[in-house]
Amino acid sequence: MSQAIVIGISDYKLAKGPEVLVTYALGSCVGVCLYDKVTKLGGLSHIMLPDSTNFSNKDINRKKFADTAIVDLVDEMKRAGCGNNRIVAKIAGGAQMFEVQPGSKLGAIGERNILCVKQVLSQLRIPILAEDTGLNFGRTQYFDLATGVMKIQSLNRRIEEF
Amino acid sequence: MFENYDELNEMQIDMLREIGNIGAGNAATALATILDEKVDMSVPSVRITGFDEAVANLGGAETMTVAVLVNFSGDAHGMIMFLLNVEDAKSIMDILVGEDDGEEGLSEMKISGIKEIGNILASSYVNAISALTGLTIEVSVPYVAIDMVGALMSVPIIEFGAIGDKLMFIEENFLGETNDLKSNMIMFAEINTLKTIMQKLGLEI
Predict the structure, then answer these.
(1) Domain residues for B96?
(2) CB pairs below 8 Å between A and B: how many?
(3) Domain for residue B107, yes or no?
(4) Quick check: is B61 in a domain?
(5) Mean pLDDT confidence for B61-86
(6) Do A49 and B158 touch (CB under 8 A)?
């Protein structure tokens, strides 16, 4: 296996099996894996914020927000030959890293990221096959494009495969 | 007039470095008092970096780190993070308690001690800025977590990285002389807060 392709914060990449994609140390951000098992094409998107519409008057980085990044990645996958109804998703992240007081906006962002990712996927009719989200710890997310398996590594848990 | 962190000019960055110097100087004095040892402080660096670079500069995304987070609000809005590795956190608490309990890792008691130290340092930092500028700044209760530094940093990155693709923070390293303890203090502030502080200090923006 060659070295994994690294996806940074507010970025996504598209690749083909047997490549492996990885994004390190997701906290409140959400990593979205999209996959078409027929073509073995897939993408990983490291989403930082839920909704770009509050920032629409600025030049925004479309790879930062759930509502723009996922739509763009799906478009790219389709242009690369992924079947319309074959794309599936696996998601991870959206943790609450610090135990803040209830009602603090700091605590809610992970959850809002997860909700928005789910909404966008549902609008695009992309099923979520697996998720490892929420709670209070960081996750490194690997996505094996040969198999479509998502692997999650954390500091105090065993490696889990989804 | 700047709207993004990467539009700050040299003079403005110099002023931020001076603010870091004053804030962290106060925090270093507090740390020296707590540890009862001499604490050296680096020249503060004002960093304007991409998100990944900010994390890479802290030892790499997956490095296990103890972080104390404090929010400030009122006339100025921002966040202070106090970061150190688990071994140094343990050593600091051993110094304070006066013995090494021989335990692996950090007990609940030690974590809560580190949280309180982070709180004192962040408050000292903010008080210095407040005294300098005359701004009324309130400090939240401290929050503590131990995890991958990249995951911990996602919190300020999300908070201060919404507009633009750059993050601005003022960073200081503290070095305890006798016991070689290293820690790191990072201050993030909203763009509007930077403007307010600069105006208060008489800098044209």
Answers:
(1) 5-200
(2) 92
(3) yes
(4) yes
(5) 95
(6) yes
